[in-house]
Amino acid sequence: MINDYILQSRKICKSYRQDGVVTDVLHGIDFAIKRGEFCSIMGPSGCGKSTLLHILGLMLTANSADELAIDGVNTLGLNQSQRTRIRRDKIGFVFQRFNLIDVLTAEDNLKLALKLKGKSSTNHVLELLELVGISDKARHKPHQMSIGEQQRLAIARAVIHQPAILLADEPTGNLDSGNAERVMDLLRYYHKQFNQTIIMVTHNPDLARQADRLICMKDGRIVA
Amino acid sequence: MTGLAWANIKHRKLRSALAALAVAIGVAMLVTMLALSHGTLDEVAQRVKGIDAELLVLPSETSAIFSEGAPLSEKYLPKIKNLRVNSHLVVTQIIPVYFQIMPKMAGQQQRVFGIEPDQFQAFSKGRSLLAGRLFDPEQRFKKFIEQLPKSNQGHYQPDQVPDKVLNEACELVIDERLSRAGKYKVGDTIPFLGRNFTICGIIQAGAAGRVFAPIEVIRHIGTGGIPRSSLFFVKLDPTLVDVEEKEVQGDKIRVWDCAAGLGKIIDMKVISLNQYDKLLFNSFGPIYVYINIASGLVLVVSFLFIMVTIYTMVLERRREIGILRSLGATGSYIMSQTISEALIISVCGMAAGLAMSYGAKEAIERFRPLLTVDLQPRWLLLGVIVGFVGGLASALYPGYCALRQDPLEALGYE
Predict the structure, then answer these.
(1) Whole-angstrom Cα Rg for chain B
(2) Which of A220, B38, B63, B184 has the most CB within a 10 Å radius?
(3) In the beta sheet, which residues pair with residue A32?
(4) Between A93, A101, A116, which is nearest B333 by CB?
(5) How confident is the model at residue B185 (pLDDT cuts 50, 70, 90)?
(6) Would you call A52 an interface residue with chain B, using a CB distance cutoff of 8 Å?
(7) Chain B contacts to A (CB-CB under 8 A)
């Protein structure tokens, strides 16, 4: 029987130590998301929403947790290479600052992502560029594209391997309203068309409300 | 595998070129330093080893490298000539040489080989005269002093030689490198031993000495004509002696046996000319130690130079490494990209460094013709190893550090 929950976590705690001072960021977060759900996490700056997203995406390690299962695999206790493999196969990331490879063209950024996932399909790359509306920029490097185009390229890269979960950290944070709307359209399209599970962190209430489910955080805790 | 590495290199052309240049300078510095120091000393050894003789006879306490003046009497000549090994007369020719130091020629001290004109072949090693002629080819000066009245000891009175006769005999043959270094040509005069010597010929580079003069003239000025020498080169009969020293066991007499036999009948140091480079090494031991220490330091500096360059280059890529990790790139993929880029830069730098070494050789030998830059394969290989290992090692460490970082930490590195 397929587990309805694609992601389950219990009692996730995270703190940072800097110059001998310990700052608690997450206080025992319990969180679960169903397959195909579009969930947004909202909250004020510093409430721990990005930290939570990075832990869910195995980019950060929690100080303690009772459970962190992705697509049925409990990730607690996995070593670095096992975590990398899960990140590669099951997770797609969209960052606020895009994090594209500057030295590669749009097309090559996607090809590299495919190659890292152990796949290769040039047609798929071109189709995806068409889908996100930047097929005319295939041979352009990121710095030769507008920031809206860069973010759409970043989304294309994140979904190119059809990940189990798409994690988006303030995907519209650097965009004007027009570009932000296009990016949201793209995420919604993916969610509806491919039943893509999406967790999006934002501090914009209007964008957050476009998701199926809204989670509010405050001071390292889920409050609603 | 190297796609991203190439893309990085092409995208940051100036930085890549500067990194390769830094590697090139490190490699060229090391290779040129070694080739120059060893080449210049080895060239001296090779020149002397090429003399057409097998043994060297010199006073026991004298160095073959630094000997000068005339400590050896010609009374030894008959004893040497009559050397018998296994009841065979083995000596075919004795070549006396009288060394004198010329304080300055082409900006540096030169050792003048005083030799008999008819024995010049033994020192020229087949090199031909590029200009002019050999000094006193008809041996007029020798013939002149031979007809002078002699004392009971068989010596003539130096003041019996007129200045005109002596001045005409004061001639030098120099090699082409010295000629180029000092811009000397046939007909130029050089002050030496209180007289003006005229350059009468220029010989191809590679002869045993850089400056040759008639031994009778040097003796006349140096000892008042008493027939003494600095050392003797002894040529052995090749039909009896294994002069090539190739036979492990054979019928021929070994050069070493001739040297030992000669050492027993005259109280002199007798060495095989094939041991000359060893002798040179012993005489220049402290200099070789200095060269080796200096070369070691250059090696360390070159290595650090390359390491810092590549290390900085890899550090610049930590954000990219973070991105790759967020995409799920494995450690081996990231390391392969990092190492590929470092190796491409290092290989280009190595090639440029070796090319720069050849350029340095041309420049040094052009502007300092008395120096020899001998780019032996071992120095070139060392340059390649230092460039390769330096590039590899310096990519491994920062690459390893980047892999150990959280991807987020690496992403934040800008």
Answers:
(1) 30
(2) A220
(3) A8
(4) A116
(5) very high
(6) no
(7) 3-4, 7-8, 10-12, 319-320, 322-331, 333, 406-408, 411
* Cα B269 to Cα B108: distance, rounded to the nearest angstrom: 29
The predicted-structure confidence for B334-368, as pLDDT tens digits, reads as follows 888 888 888 888 899 999 999 999 999 999 988 88
Q: Which residues pair with B234 in a beta bridge?
A: B55, B94
Interface confidence: ipTM more than 0.90: no
Contact of A91 with chain B, judged by CB distance below 8 Å, is answered with yes
How many other CB atoms are there within 10 angstroms of residue A185's CB atom?
12
For helices B276-283 and B285-315, the axis angle rounded to 10 degrees is: 80
Phi, psi of B251 (to 5 degrees): -80, -25
Q: How do beta strands A213-218 and A197-202 pair?
A: unpaired
Closest residue, chain A, to B320 (C-alpha): A101
Structural domain boundaries in chain A: 5-222
CA distance A135 to chain B (A): 21
Q: How far is CA B270 from the centre of its chain?
A: 24
Stretch A149-175: mean pLDDT:
91
What's the pTM value of the predicted model, to 2 decimals? 0.72
Look up the CATH architecture of domain A5-222: 3-Layer(aba) Sandwich (3.40)
Q: How far apart are CA B50 and CA B73, in angstroms?
A: 25
Strand partners, B88: B85
User: A42-84: per-residue pLDDT in tens?
Assistant: 998 889 999 999 999 998 889 999 999 999 899 998 988 899 8
Instruction: Give the best residue of A112, A157, A167 to mutate against chain B (max B CB count within 10 A).
Output: A112
